[in-house]
Specification:
alpha+beta, five-stranded antiparallel sheet
Length: 358
């Protein structure tokens, strides 16, 4: 079997007692923000992602997030002062003046995350310039009333949304990998110290097991060397058998997408997910730095997308062209009705484990 990095948005925790996430899509409201005259270059989503990664850092306190406008093919950078607006436009982006700084929104998100109840998520949304708090169907009664008060106390920095179903992690990914009675998906093949490894979701290891095979009950081909869940949702597995490990993602059409590097996601860009249950699906990045409170605990720093997913896709690859973006963590919905899926950022996993692609 060829081990490939895979990106799918179906989450399943087969055999370890975790149910599938079922939730409706998140609707984004229009932000109350003024936009300067557009002086932006036409960009692909990949080019916008690369520009966003450097530009937001260069603007430091003057920027308040960025997102890709797919219709206009522009990178929109939220700014809070004229100097930042001039710099953004000079770099080829469109500047948009907003009310809340990134620091203010992160502080509001931190307040809302403290003591968060299971079945909720909190995301920094650059389109609305707010913290979007989403509550699933399990949040009712006194818990819902308290959540409404906490959101209202943020004075316009946060908004509450509801979603059907429940937030839970799933064991799944690209090419299927197995441990005990559980199935996940392989994320991306990586290298550490000159040795071959692969990345997958942390909950696959913490809730499933440390020894992984290419078939249920088959010979072990890898042993987990590190894993984190909750808090983060990433794991590093070292190959212990002589198997192929190309730096590519299975696209389930008889071919594969080569993966040559990794980068951060950009809100609004088009992405693809590959996994062993639902194979290849695409969609867009909805939000970054998302905190999701699963029954097992809160996971921070996730990427939220509108890509569908189902049980068995956990750990699988989220990618854009030849760039690795994320590892399937959890979500809601399915590939019949749609839903939302959360991903662990690949860059953070590579940094923690000292690994590289390829």
């Amino acid at each position: 079997m060829r081990y490939r990095a895979i990106s799918k948005s179906r989450y399943a925790l087969a055999g370890v007692g975790a149910a599938a996430l079922i939730a409706g899509s998140l609707t984004l409201a229009t932000a109350n923000a003024s936009t300067s005259e557009p002086v932006a270059d036409t960009l692909s989503s990949a080019a916008a992602g690369e520009l966003a990664g450097t530009l937001v850092q260069d603007l430091k306190g003057g920027a308040a997030g960025a997102y890709y406008d797919a219709q206009a093919k522009e990178l929109v950078v939220n700014v809070v002062n004229d100097e930042a607006a001039e710099q953004a436009e000079a770099a080829g982006a469109r500047a948009r003046t907003v009310d809340h700084t990134t620091k203010e929104l992160k502080a509001a998100k931190a307040d809302l995350t403290q003591g968060a109840t299971a079945g909720t998520s909190r995301a920094l949304d650059p389109v609305t310039n707010q913290v979007v708090v989403t509550a699933d169907s399990t949040v009712t009664g006194a818990e819902l009333a308290q959540l409404k008060k906490e959101v209202a106390a943020q004075d316009g920095k946060a908004v509450l949304k509801r979603t059907a179903g429940t937030f839970k992690p799933y064991i799944s990914g690209g090419d299927a990998i197995y441990t005990g009675g559980s199935r996940c998906s392989l994320g991306f093949n990586v290298t550490k110290g000159g040795e071959p490894y692969f990345l997958t979701a942390g909950h696959c290891v913490e809730l499933g097991g440390s020894s992984w095979s290419e078939s249920s009950g088959g010979p072990v081909i890898g042993e987990a060397e590190g894993a984190t869940f909750p808090g983060n949702d990433r794991a590093l597995v070292k190959y212990t058998a002589d198997v192929e490990h190309p730096s590519e993602v299975d696209t389930y059409d008889g071919s594969a997408q080569e993966i040559t590097g990794a980068r951060e996601a950009t809100v609004g860009e088009t992405v693809q997910r590959s996994g062993s249950t639902t194979q290849l699906h695409d969609g867009s990045v909805v939000a970054l730095d998302v905190s999701v409170t699963y029954p097992e605990g809160t996971v921070d720093g996730l990427i939220q997308t509108d890509v569908c997913a189902e049980p068995g896709d956990s750990g699988g690859a989220l990618f854009a062209g030849s760039d690795a973006i994320g590892l399937t963590s959890g979500g809601s919905g399915d590939c019949t009705n749609g839903g939302e899926t959360f991903f662990e950022p690949v860059v953070a996993a590579l940094d923690e484990y000292g690994a590289t692609i390829p």
